[in-house]
Design goal:
The complex is a heterodimer of chains A (about 260) and B (about 270).
Chain A: E1 2-14, E2 18-24, E3 37-40, E4 52-54, E5 57-58, E6 63-68, H1 74-80, E7 87-94, E8 106-111, H2 116-128, E9 132-139, E10 155-161, E11 168-169, H3 176-182, E12 185-189, H4 192-205, E13 214-217, E14 234-237, E15 240-243, H5 244-247, E16 250-252
Parallel strand pairs in A: 8-9, 8-12, 9-10, 10-11, 12-13
Antiparallel strand pairs in A: 1-2, 1-7, 2-6, 3-4, 3-7, 5-6, 13-16, 14-15
Helix pairs in contact in A: 3-4
Chain B: E1 2-3, E2 13-14, E3 18-20, E4 42-47, E5 61-64, E6 67-70, H1 79-91, E7 97-102, H2 106-117, E8 130-134, H3 141-152, E9 159-164, H4 169-178, E10 181-186, E11 189-194, E12 197-205, H5 208-222, E13 227-230, H6 236-243, E14 249-252, H7 255-258, H8 260-273
Parallel strand pairs in B: 3-4, 3-14, 4-7, 7-8, 8-9, 9-10, 10-13, 13-14
Antiparallel strand pairs in B: 1-2, 5-6, 6-12, 11-12
Helix pairs in contact in B: 2-3, 3-4
The chains are: A alpha/beta (about 260), B alpha/beta (about 270).
Bound molecules: FE2/S2 (inorganic) cluster (FES).
């Protein structure tokens, strides 16, 4: 972990609701594990005093990729208004990322939210090991899902939208019964309700939730220190009090209470 | 070098007047690898109590304009575990460590202080250089006396006292009578929204600077012992401002979150230039 500068070298608007930022980060990029985070200093001390966590993924050539949706948070809005060539002051990589799949064949990646980069980073790992990958995304409508036109053909893609404009009409968790039978391990990013149904359905479909099956990324909007000193990010788990910034943000969901 | 504890037989010598405040560097290890914490004049640890404290429930944090509210309720694993988890790291740390002890039952404080004072290097040097006693907002001179006696009866280390902001004169005098230095101050309470929930806790951020500068002026007129300023220090100019207006040393707080390199640079700057 270090405090360093990264430079925005590419900024694409992915219509209608996404931005894709590419940053060069020679000090960090090859050490960052998908799911780990950086704390970005947003320049305005008044509206965003604390650093903001971002969850990029390494994309080779010393670069980091970050897919963002417009966000009412002033810090994230500041970040989205950066231009090519702008420099960001970051601290990281922080926390524990997704573990590499060990002795697993079928990898399920699932999200109902916007932290897609850790999942796509995990997807690349899995593909390089010749594992089978299914990516399931859910959102309110097709336009809100990140357009993954260029997914490798080896990846099976499933979508769910509330209005039925893409894929299954309903929640992405409706797809779980079949997917959970197939999967050997699940990596998830998104809402607490996604994690909640992942746990409940796993118990139902697989007759119990064992360790090393469900991993989810917990991400409170603010991490004041990111290094375990402020204790703002404490989390109750089966194994006692943990800190999201040190012990997470990726947790084995079998160890996390149902309301988290 | 500055001496914070003139009258004390062990003393408390700092290489520079810039310390890290309680709650902003864990027990020393938190920033390991990110900055060199040995650059600072001293490190005050997170709170240490006799028994483990679970702390408050979530949400603990809310951002404010130019600051934040934080309430962790003294969460810590208890003195035994703190020592177990940090002793090896402390043994190699070349910077004075000041253990922050929140006011507690005197018998508990006594045992906590004794446990901390008894850990030493193989050569027999204590690993803890001093204690910082945190006073609660409501307490009496008699409480202060009882706490001080409890800490010192078996632990011969210097004690700094961290006052609540706006402490009444009789409390300031009681603290000054038994401490080697006063730390000004525990930040005031504030409340702010986290989503729809109100978080009540200490206020940190830029606004503290002027509150503390004023508090230092008032206390300077009342007592004659070293004062340590803490609250909202962000720049070298802020530090100079305190040092030229009554403070002997300062503690950095939220700057550690905002810009740890800047914090380290300020300490380095004053090591040479002091
Ligand atoms: S963010 Fe400070 S302890 Fe986790």
């Amino acid at each position: 972990m270090k405090q360093t500068q990264i430079t925005l070298i590419q900024k694409e608007s992915i219509a209608p609701a996404w931005w894709h930022l590419t940053m060069t980060a020679p000090d960090l990029a090859d050490r960052l594990i998908p799911g780990q985070f950086l704390l970005v200093r947003c320049a305005d001390l008044f509206s965003c005093y604390l650093r903001r966590p971002i969850f990029p993924s390494p994309m080779g050539n010393d670069c980091l990729s970050l897919r963002l949706r417009p966000d009412p948070d002033p810090g994230m809005a500041w970040l989205l208004s950066r231009q090519i060539g702008d420099v960001l002051d970051v601290i990281g990589p922080l926390g524990k990322g997704f573990p590499l799949p060990q002795e697993k064949r079928n990898i399920l990646l699932i999200s109902d939210g916007f932290r897609l980069d850790p999942l796509l980073g995990q997807m690349n790992h899995a593909l390089s090991e010749n594992l089978s990958v299914t990516l399931a995304l859910g959102g309110s409508r097709a336009a809100n899902l990140y357009p993954l036109n260029s997914l490798p053909s080896a990846v099976e893609f499933q979508a769910a939208t509330l209005d039925g404009s893409l894929g299954h009409r309903g929640l992405v968790t409706d797809l779980l019964p079949d997917l959970l039978v197939w999967a050997d391990v699940v990596y998830a990013t998104g809402s607490t309700s996604l994690y909640h149904s992942l746990k409940i359905q796993t118990e139902r479909v697989r007759f119990g939730l064992v360790k090393d099956f469900l991993y989810g990324l917990l991400s409170p909007p603010l991490h004041p220190c990111g290094v375990g000193s402020c204790l703002a990010c404490s989390l109750e788990t089966a194994a006692g009090l943990k800190l999201i910034c040190l012990d997470g943000p990726v947790f084995d969901l079998s160890e996390i209470g149902n309301n988290d | 070098m500055i001496e914070l504890a003139h009258q004390h037989k062990i003393g408390l010598m700092l290489a520079n007047p810039v310390m890290i405040a309680a709650g902003f560097a864990g027990y020393g290890k938190a920033y390991h690898g990110l900055i060199n914490i040995e650059t600072f004049g001293a490190i005050v640890t997170n709170p240490i109590t006799l028994r483990p404290e679970r702390g408050t429930t979530q949400p603990r944090l809310a951002e404010t304009s130019a600051g934040f509210i934080l309430n962790t309720g003294q969460q810590n694993p208890g003195v035994k575990k703190v020592i177990k988890q940090n002793q090896n790291f402390w043994a190699h740390l070349k910077v004075p460590l000041i253990a922050h002890l929140p006011a507690d039952e005197p018998s508990d404080l006594h045992r906590t202080a004794r446990a901390l004072a008894s850990i030493t290097t193989p050569q027999g040097h204590p690993l803890i250089a001093a204690f910082e006693l945190g006073l609660p907002p409501e307490c009496t001179p008699r409480d202060v006396k009882a706490w001080l006696e409890a800490i010192q009866s078996d632990a011969p280390l210097p004690v700094l006292i961290k006052l609540p902001l706006g402490a009444p004169l009789h409390l300031i005098e009681a603290a000054a009578a038994s401490a080697v230095a006063l730390v000004i101050s525990t930040p005031p309470l504030g409340s702010a929204l986290n989503g729809s929930e109100l978080v009540i806790g200490h206020l940190y951020g830029a606004a503290l600077h002027s509150l503390i500068l004023q508090e230092i002026q008032l206390i300077r007129q009342q007592v004659d012992l070293p004062l340590v300023a803490v609250g909202g220090i962000h720049t070298l100019a802020d530090v100079q401002n305190f040092l030229s207006h009554g403070a002997t040393a300062v503690q950095l707080d939220s700057l550690l979150f905002i810009d740890p390199q800047q914090a380290e640079m300020m300490a380095a700057e004053l090591t040479n230039g002091f």
